[in-house]
Every structure is written in C-alpha cells, then in structure tokens.
C-alpha cells in the first residue's frame, strides 16, 4: 500500500507523522475526499478548487507546486495501489512547528494522501436511511473543509447510538446539514437546501445535484428550512462524495416521522449515476 507523504510516494508503513504537526495540536489543516470510479477520479478539479479555497480562507500557503504534486499523487496512488472503486483522501496541514497558537506565515505546509477501497452503498441508496436530529454545535465557518471535525464527529456518534446512519444538524429550528453530508427536501416538485453560506460545507455532490435538477427543469430554493419542514416534506435525501444521493426515510430525535422515497429523488439518482458512468468508462 503506497501513500503520498511529504512530497514522496512511499510505503504506508514508512510514513511517520511529526510530533509537531499543527494539524495534531490545533486541527490546523484542510482536506478533500475524491471518489474514484473504475480507476478514474470523479470531479477532481472541483475538489482541488475547494481545497484551494479552504487553504486561502485559513491563510495556509498553497503554492502551485504543492497543487501539482498533489494532483500527480492522485494518479500515481491510484495506479500504484491499483485502485478501482474507492477514494483518495488528501490533507494539507499548515505545517510543522513547535506548539504555539500563533502561526508563522513562513511555516511550510505539509501534505499527504492515501487511497481507500470502497463500494457504493447500494442498499442504503435503494432503501433509504434513518437520520437523527441534533443541535448544530459547530463553529461559524462550516464552509471551510478543515480537519477540525469535533462537532461532526460527536453528531455522528449520537446518530449511531440511536441506530441512525446520519445526523441532521440544526441551529435552533433551522436545518443546516448532515455530519458529513448535505440535505435536500422536496415539496411539490421543488427542491430546497440550505444556502451555501458559512453555516454549511458547499458539497461537490450538492452542487452537482443542483445542476442536474435545474437542467431537468426543477426549481431549487436556497431558503433555509425548519426541522418541521423536513418532516412535512414529500421527499428528503442526503448527498456526499461517498453516499452520492441517499434517500431519508425516517427522522428520529426531538421530532419523529417517516418519509417515502419519491420520484424526484429516484430521477436525480439516475442522472447522477449516468454522469458517474461516463467517468467510470473513461
Ligand atoms: N457537509 C459536510 C460537513 C461534509 O463533511 C461533507 C463531506 N465531506 C459534505 C457536506 C458533502 O460534501 P461533498 O459532496 O463534497 O462530499
């Protein structure tokens, strides 16, 4: 198993992290997960653009050479590990420096990447999942994809403890997003999802779904909605790189209810699959 580590492709066993990496002390780093279908990375450019934005927002220097090295690493790792179905994880840390809250703008960033095999969660996509409503306790820059994921991690555990596959976070009454997914509802053939502001991560899959929906004539509203609206929706689904489009069939937590898998969700699933197939077959 090969990994990309500090600008080299090496064996995973040989990679050892520095004691003083700022991502260890402060969660001071950004990351991306790129899905690989049939050995081909899916929407790689969009993920790299978001990595750039995350780095910029955190004042982490991200030079062109770094970007080129990471892009090259994606292909090299897929080849070296003979990855067919899975994903590439990549992380860019602010770098290695003695522990100090105050960062130095001259610290050199440190990046690494690895691949992991995975299969599309077909069963969940076909049958839907239960989600657990929980208060969104995260900071106010959820638009940045940082490795500081404690709110998300606690929410996911809470969901699992209630036999739910995903947590749906809300700030007061307003639904924001899942712990590692975005949420859409459908009401009277209109889609609705939280606006891409500082309160959610603007998912690549979210963006694809919006484009596919608009192409096929659906309107998408970016008005925030309440937990009540989720329960009263005709359909609801979550999106992410690894989940693609997964229907929500049950809501648990402070409010309870069930939902059917509807035609809009199914249609969007088909459209996304068709796009994925063009990648899979090169
Ligand atoms: N929201 C959060 C909080 C996430 O962690 C993720 C997945 N990383 C998403 C949404 C979905 O984003 P994407 O479609 O780019 O995977």
From TrEMBL:
Cofactor(s) in the UniProt record: pyridoxal 5'-phosphate
E.C. number: 2.6.1.21
Source taxon at top rank: Bacteria
One GO term of the biological process aspect: carboxylic acid biosynthetic process
One Gene Ontology CC term in the entry: cytosol
Keywords from the UniProt entry: Aminotransferase, Pyridoxal phosphate, Transferase
Gene3D superfamilies: 3.30.470.10, D-amino Acid Aminotransferase, subunit A, domain 2 (3.20.10.10)
Keyword Transferase included in the entry's annotation: yes
Reactions performed catalytically: D-alanine + 2-oxoglutarate = D-glutamate + pyruvate
One annotated GO molecular function: D-alanine-2-oxoglutarate aminotransferase activity
Enzyme kind, highest EC tier: transferase
InterPro entries: Aminotrans_IV, Aminotrans_IV_CS, Aminotransferase-like, BCAT-like_C, BCAT-like_N, Class-IV_PLP-Dep_Aminotrnsfr, D_amino_transT
Role, per record: Acts on the D-isomers of alanine, leucine, aspartate, glutamate, aminobutyrate, norvaline and asparagine. The enzyme transfers an amino group from a substrate D-amino acid to the pyridoxal phosphate cofactor to form pyridoxamine and an alpha-keto acid in the first half-reaction.
Family statement drawn from the similarity comment of this UniProt entry: Belongs to the class-IV pyridoxal-phosphate-dependent aminotransferase family.
Assembly mode: Homodimer.
Record protein name field: D-alanine aminotransferase
Organism: Natribacillus halophilus
């Amino acid at each position: 198993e090969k990994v990309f580590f500090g600008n080299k492709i090496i064996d995973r066993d040989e990679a050892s992290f520095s004691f003083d990496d700022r991502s260890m002390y402060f969660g001071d780093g950004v990351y991306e997960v790129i899905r690989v279908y049939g050995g081909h990375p899916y929407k790689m450019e969009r993920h790299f653009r978001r990595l750039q934005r995350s780095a910029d927002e955190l004042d982490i220097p991200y030079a062109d050479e770094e970007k080129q090295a990471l892009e090259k690493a994606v292909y090299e790792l897929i080849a070296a590990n003979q990855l067919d179905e899975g994903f590439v994880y990549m992380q860019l840390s602010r770098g290695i420096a003695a522990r100090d809250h105050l960062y130095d703008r001259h610290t050199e960033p440190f990046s690494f990447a690895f691949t992991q095999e995975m299969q599309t969660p077909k069963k969940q996509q076909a049958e839907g999942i239960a989600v657990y409503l929980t208060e969104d306790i995260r900071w106010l820059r959820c638009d940045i994809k940082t490795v500081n994921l404690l709110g998300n991690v606690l929410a996911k555990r809470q969901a699992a403890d209630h036999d739910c596959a995903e947590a749906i976070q809300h700030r007061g009454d307003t639904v924001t997003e899942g712990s590692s997914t975005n949420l859409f509802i459908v009401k009277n053939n209109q889609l609705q999802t939280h606006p891409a502001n500082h309160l959610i991560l603007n998912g690549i899959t979210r963006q694809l779904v919006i484009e596919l929906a608009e192409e096929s004539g659906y309107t998408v509203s970016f008005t925030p909605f309440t937990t009540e609206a989720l329960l009263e929706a005709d359909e609801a689904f979550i999106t992410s790189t690894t989940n693609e489009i997964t229907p929500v069939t049950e809501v648990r937590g402070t409010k309870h209810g069930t939902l059917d898998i509807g035609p809009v969700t199914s249609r969007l699933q088909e459209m996304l699959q068709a796009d994925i197939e063009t990648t899979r077959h090169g």
